[in-house]
Each structure stands twice: as C-alpha cells, then as structure tokens.
Amino acid sequence: MPNKPSQPPTVPPPGRVVRPGSNPRHFGPGPGRGHGAGIPVEKARDAKAAYKKLLSYLGKYKLPLLVGVVLTFLSTALSILGPRQIGDSTTILFNGFQSKLAGGPGIDFSAAGELWHYVRNSILLYSSSMLLWILQGLIFAKVATSVSYDLRLQLIRKIDRLPVAYFNRVSHGDVLSRITNDVDTLNQTLNQGLGEIVHSGTLLVGILIMMFATQWTMALAAIAIVPVMLLSVMLIVKFSQKHFKAQQDYLGSTNGTIEEAYAGQMVVRAYGAEEKTIAEFDEQNNKLRDAAWKAQFLSGLMHPIASVVGNLNYVIVCILGAKLALGGTLGVGAITEFIMYIRQFNQPLMQLSQLMSTFQQTGAAAERVFEFLAEPEMTEPADPGDFPDCAALEGSVRFEHVRFGYEDSDEIVIKDFSADVKAGQKVAIVGPTGAGKTTLVKLLMRFHELTGGAIYIDGRNIADYPRSAVRDCLGMVLQDTWLTKATIEDNIRYGKLDATHEEVKAAAKTAQAHAFIRALPDGYRMEINEEANNISQGQKQLLTIARAVLANPRVLILDEATSSVDTRTEILIQKAMDNLMKGRTSFIIAHRLSTIRNADLILCLNHGDIVEQGTHDELLAAGGFYANLYNSQFERAA
To answer: What domains can you pick out in the chain, each with its CATH number?
Structure first.
C-alpha cells in the first residue's frame, strides 16, 4: 500500500482518480458559489487576536529577529550621535568666523585638529550606521519572506483539509486572494515594518535623551504637541480600520468575479453575456473603490497631522532658540544640533504615522488569513483502525439507511438509502437529474459526512478509518474532465506517480488513447496548456480514463465517463471498461441507459430513495419507473 501523506488528502477536481495515499500533490478546489457580494462594512472582528497569532509565527525566528533588533538599535544610536559631532564642529567654525570679524586670526585650519576630529567622527558614525542598517534590512527581509512562506504552506495544506461544503459557499477568487494578496500584504509589512518600528522607537527615545541633555526647556516645548498628534491618530485608526477590513474582503470578491469571467470566456461570449459580466464586475469594483478610498483617505490624514507637528516644532525651536541665544544661555552650535534633532524627531513620527495605515491593512489581511486557517476541518476518527491493504479487499459495499443533506441547506438530498453490493458486481445508478446519483458516490468517497446511517466496505464502516486509507482503494472518474498544466504522460501518471513510461503507454492503449497521443506534436511529451483547450473534450476524457486504468483501484466509480466521446470511441472504451471492471466492484452513474444493459444490478433513484432495483431485463419486464425512463430516451431520440 502506498505511503500516506502527512496531510489529509485534497478534495479531487472533476475527472481525477482519487488515490490520496499515493499522491502528495496538491490541486485546487472545485467551483464555488458567489463572490462575496454584500459584504458588510464593519469593524474588524478581532484584529488584536490576528496580530497575536502573527507574532507567534515570528517567534519561530527569535534569534535572527534579536540580531536584527540589535543591529537596528546600534544603527539608530550611531545616527543619533552624529548631530552632536556636527554641532561641536559648527561651534568651532562659528567661533572662528566671529574671531575673524572681530579682527582676530579666525580659524587656523592647519592647527584645527579638533575640527577635523569632529568631521571624521561624523563620517565614521553615519557610514557605520548605514552599513548596520543594510545588514538589519537583509535579516528582516529574510524573516518576512520565511513567515510568508510558512503561511502560504499552511494555507495550501488547509485547502486539503477543508470539507467540500466550504468551497460551495466561497469563491475561487476569495480563496486565492487570501493566499496571494493578503499574504503579500503581510510580507510587505513585516519586511518594511519590523525594522522601521525598532528604528523609530529607538530614534524617538535616543533623540529625546539627547534633546534633554542639550537643553531641557526646548525639549519640553518640542514634545508638548505630540500628545495631540497621538490622540488624532488613535481616532483615525478607530474609524478607518473597518474600511480596511472591507477593502480586503471586497478585493477577494472582485478577484472571484474576475476569475469566473476569465474561466468562462467561451460561455460568456456564446450567450452574449458580456454586458452582464461587466455589470457584475462593475458592482464589485465599485464596492472595492468605495471601501478603498475611505480607508486610504482616513489613513492619509496621519501624514499631514505629523507634518504639522513637525513644522510647529521647527517654529518653537527657532523662536525659543533665538531667545535663549540672545540671552547667552545657548550657543549657535547647540541650536544647529537641536534643529537636526528636531528633524530626526519628526522623521520617526512621520514613519509611524505612515506605518499606522500599513498596519491597519495588515491587520485586516492577517484576520482574513487566520480566519481561513481557523475554518473547521474534515474530522478523522480519534482512534482509527488499520484499513486492509487494497489487494486484500474483496470489494463488497453496503449502504445502510444512508441519509444526507448539505450543510448550507435544510433540504435532505438522500433520505433513506440502503443497498447491498456484492464484491465484483457492476452496479448502475440511474435516475432523473437531482435524484442524488452523484451525491451517493461522493458519500462513498467521503467527500461529505453522512447525516445518518453508514457505509461499509467488506463489512468495515468507512467512517472508522482515515480517508486516505479508504480512498487508496477507490478510483473515480467524473463526467467533467480535469487535467493539469503538464505533459500528457504526467497527467496519466497522476493515477500512479511511480509508474514507468511503459505502464503509462499500456494504460493509454487500454483506454483507446494511445493512437491519438502518437498523432499529437511531441506525443506523450506534449504539454497541455493551463486551460486544457489544446486537445478536444473527447481526448481529455480518454486521458482521465487512462489515468483510472493506471491507478488500478479496487472499487471503481464512473460518472458517465464516456459522455464526451463519439459513438465509435464509446464502443471501444466500453470494451476497455468491461475488461477493467472484471473482478472489481464498479459503480456507474448512467444517463444513457443503453450503456448499462449488462449491469449486474441497476439501482433506480428518485428524490434520494431507491424506487426500483434489479437487472435490465427484470426492470423492463416490471414496466415501472425504469421502463418509463428507458423508453422515454428512445422516444426523444425518435
């Protein structure tokens, strides 16, 4: 039995042969419903909790973060010491010019070793500060990208563990937006914000110390207006956070609209629905614009507020400094030094005001990411048993009073289904659209959890075992084909990753696909494009059947697997399927009843219940539900 993945298996796309135990690769979810229209503009539900979780991810990188913080602290400290050197050198120059104006000797540059000492120290301090800043930037960038990598990996694994019901209510675009846009937002904030926070905090504290050491009266005057700025910022954050949350939500819903419009271009154009599609996008885009401009406008107020505080500080320093200088209590060099400190003091205030808007958007993005990670997962038995190796299974399947309804609906799809399928039987499931045929086999695959009853394979309740162990022995080919952007050989090998080229070729021959593959450019090495539209629909169906042949499952499920091929190819495939199904338990969901005449058992479903069961001849002779269904097909054909 193949090794099982460390994570629960992916919900299979249409046409995939489900063998999670032997397939660690991930593929995306099936189609979702809706785009998130009507997302309420509300305050972020728990941004603080999202920040705490984000900090827990950073805890994994304590050592590099500590090194980065120390380098940032040293870089900032060196830059703070620079103005003192410049101030002292300015004092020497000013005194020399005053001496010259008074008729004295002025500055003796040949003997002014003290002046060159200050200049040399300034160059050394600022150069060292720049070098340390570059090193801390490198460290924080590596930490930020590592955290983003960890989050994306968890998000991708989370997709594999989510129930199918989640993707019935959430669009592709919204899920993709969480993995791409939201994680990118976190990455940018961590990359730029970590160093800036340490730098700004250290700079503020250091400059305050130096300002008070230079002239405490001017220092008090300079910081007197700062509380006003802080109160203004807090009010802005309070009102703008809800708009940042809405902006991220509407970005996800807009991506969902774009993704569906792009994927369904042929249908959109065939039905002339371009205007409707544009109108839907315009609606989502308008909501995104409204939320975005409110968020950006409010957060943009922080910069001018910080700028006003900075300008007022300059005015205060100039007026008070001039008064102190005229009184002889403060020198020109000290005023120069203080002005430089004020400029540096304003810098972290401006940076922090800009970071506040970034952190608001980051809080909204983090909340969406962790909201996704907190979604309820598919449950596994607490003490799972060891499911037998597939080769040891006989393949009998028993449905015992199965009852099922989707989580997002009160309607019961399958009400009370019971059937006993013997090992090796070929079972056809027929019925009108919406009778529950596909739902029934999806329950066998455990894509959904039963509302009531149980399903047994060889007398073992499949709910008592891990999904991967059960699915190792099951294979499924759906009516809707699905292929990945890879070579034809790799797409067939998806059913058995360690298969040789000869095994792949043999499977293709059994599925009647070898002939058309040889006629393609590059044959088995031809790459199928992202939309899988460089081969025909019938050819895609043949490849999915070849994948099922290669997987060699013990229980085979075919959901009208020959519906997309011509009559001649259908006959050839039917013969291949008959050979494949010998000795295996097979479930065939049939719409064309002429294809299941030789089934060992036909189950007729209607409204989630079995209304008839028996062989083709028995059911025709009974003249009931199946006979009416069968005869109606030929009446329509006539």
So the answer is: 47-102+112-373 (1.20.1560.10)
